[in-house]
Amino acid sequence: MKLREIITIFALVMPGQALSSDDWGPDLIEFDLEGGSKMETMLWVSGYSYSSTELLRSIGCLDQEANVGSRELIVALNKAHQGMSIDSGAASSTLGRYLRSSYYCAAYNKQHQ
């Protein structure tokens, strides 16, 4: 599935408040995700944030009140890929490593079991 198709799906199913937060925005993004606009990148990261939050909650690694923030994911991507053009596979790999190191949980971090 192409990035634009994925973004469209996320935009249709995500709650509006996840996209309208003042805590983050296009000026925070310092990498290029598959040549997309910064708005498309924000939507992709929002979808990743939402799905990561739901995954971690479903396996008991995250409290119901907590969430994986889009801003923190952008910061992690900036740290790893500042000034670079990356594809969604590289971004997912970076964020997977970030989540395993930042949200330790035996069910999620199989390498630590």
Question: Could you give a quick summary of the protein structure above?
Answer:
The protein has 113 residues and is mainly alpha-helical.
Topology, pairings included?
Layout: H1 3-13, H2 16-19, E1 32-33, H3 38-58, H4 70-81, E2 85-86, H5 88-102
Parallel strand pairs: 1-2
Describe this structure in words.
By secondary structure, the chain is mainly α. The chain contains five helices and two strands. It has one domain (3-112). 19% of the residues are buried.
List keywords for this structure.
globular, 5 helices, two-stranded parallel sheet, about 110 residues
By DSSP (H or I, 4+ residues per run), the number of helices equals 5
Q: Give start-end ranges of low-pLDDT stretches.
A: 15-21
> Globular, elongated, flat, extended or rod-shaped: what is the shape?
globular
Overall helicity? 55-70%
The total tally of domains equals 1
Query: Secondary-structure element order, as H and E?
Result: HHEHHEH
Work out the strand percent. under 5%
* Widest beta sheet: strand line-up: 1-2
Radius of gyration: 14 Å
Number of strands: 2
Main structural class: mainly alpha
Instruction: Note the main sheet.
Output: 2 strands, parallel
Q: Output mean pLDDT.
A: 83
Distance between the termini: 33 Å
